[in-house]
Amino acid sequence: MMTEYTMYEAFRQAANKAPHDLAIYYEGKRINFKTLLKRVDMTADILYNRLGLRENDVVVIAQPNIPETIVLFYAINKIGATSNLIHPFTPFNQVKQIMDKTHTKVAFLFEQRIAKEVKQYREIADQVYVTRIEDDLPLMSKFIYHNFMNFRIRKKLGKMPARFKFDGFKYTYQLKPTGKEVPTAKADKNRCSVLLHSGSTTGKPKTICLSDYAFNFISQYAYAFLAVDKDKMIGHKMLSVLPSFHGFGLCMTMHAPLVNSFSSILIPKFKATKVVKAMNATKLTCMCGVPTIYEKLLQEPTFVNNKNLKYLHCCFCGGDSMPSDLEERFNKTMEQAGSKCRLFQGYGLTEAIAVNCVNTFNANRKGSLGKAMPEATFKVVDEQGNEVPRGELGEIIIKSGAIMLGYYQDEEATKNCLKDGYLYTGDLGYMDEDDFIYFKQRKKRVVKVSGVAVFPSEVEQLIESMPEVSACAAIRIPDAKLQNSLKVFVVAKVFDETAMKEKILETCRKYLIRWSVPTEIEFRDELPLTMLGKVNFRMLQEEEDKKRGLL
Predict the structure, then answer these.
(1) Does the global pTM surpass 0.70?
(2) In angstroms, rounded to a whole number, what is the distance separating the alpha carbons of residues 267 and 463?
(3) Which of 187, 209, 239 is the last residue of a domain?
(4) Domain of 315?
(5) pLDDT tens digits for 282-297?
(6) How far apart are CA 58 and CA 374, in angstroms?
(7) Which residue of 231, 252, 293, 447 shows the fewest CB atoms closer than 10 Å?
(8) Domain edge (last residue) among 444, 475, 501
(9) What are the pLDDT digits (tens) for 162-196?
(10) Per DSSP, what are the bridge partners of residue 25?
(11) Do 419 and 483 reside in the same domain of the chain?
């Protein structure tokens, strides 16, 4: 069983099984399993013997989907340290806060991130190693990218040498392995190997502790998701466009393919034409994405009319509720292209690593989230934790080997959502008589903006910290480009609306990832309250939905 190993050990076995097969495709460059394993081992040597990292040390990875991300992930796991994955465009203030909270020893940040806030990062330069997105690009692409980046950064920071470097920072390519032995950590079901950041089951930002066991538990059932025999996994190619800091992207599009000896096709930043280019070059067979990705693909003529669609085997949609018409339009496109591929919806959350139930070729039902994966149990319960009859609405709870160890340094929150071996998801739904699971709505306040989890409470706290603001409430609004975005209602102490809007947006851009920045701001004299004196978010949401003709 894969769960008997660490993630590194599972990857090493897969690499030895198919050493010359394609492991990673990245912007035209092909890396086979043998080469990738060698790079992982060399990087583990650097981490252990050069940087002095040891078991349980925390290492930040804040990078896009580039080969270096995967190399670092497995190298860190080899020595038994903990990968702390965060969004590569997280502002410095949040990066520093996360590093302090998790006692991070070292952070690997890519060049563009440093370029945005060089002065601030000098505060922690002794902990930062800079990676370059260009290192694995083919020669011509590297030349174009390098000169383009030089121009952009010189424009931003003033005159710089032709081959720019940031004084005081260390680049990972400058680190060389020692050739000394590196002890491989042993599998430990209770060791926290990965830290991911999410909204928890209540909608408040939390850091989630996950084990090797959880990742490998999901990955060993990849064959069930694909509806193929275990011995037919090799040769499949999975698109990896979902980010590594996202549990869905990290587990299902990077780790699961690689430990099953099939390829991960990396795209650092989604663009429909880039997916088409990768599909043409690799004969892509599998995709995982959020609804906005599939919408944009269907709007791209070179995708819709592509002859290589016939190689697609299956596609999965998660991270947000999938509109039923999207599934119909995508499947119709596949039929017209002569492809047997279908788009399947699944369900999961970071606390249980990505996917725990999913529709497949073997079992699917329109409107449902599919059935539980092997060795996972779903129940729907009432407020007292009692299982409700089939078809009746309640909270979805899960028992699975993929469940988290707990929330980082938060025993109370952990106890509130882990009870008797079940994870209480905070999501409402029901099960039918045939065990298909249906999602209705979230109990927790999390908004998915282009598939990225955004926490209204975090935005509210930031805006309310401004001396000019007395109260703030954030809700979800539809967005043609992002699918959802945030609107904030603000009770201000000053009444220059134009100036206040600019100041609020400036503050949000400085301290929040761009998906959390509100797209609309409305000023009010007061906010509606519940009988307990709390802001009535439901009323605000219903009012806004009615105004937009959504109710």
Answers:
(1) yes
(2) 34
(3) 187
(4) 222-444
(5) 999 999 998 889 989 9
(6) 32
(7) 231
(8) 444
(9) 345 677 789 898 899 999 999 999 999 999 999 99
(10) 30, 265
(11) no
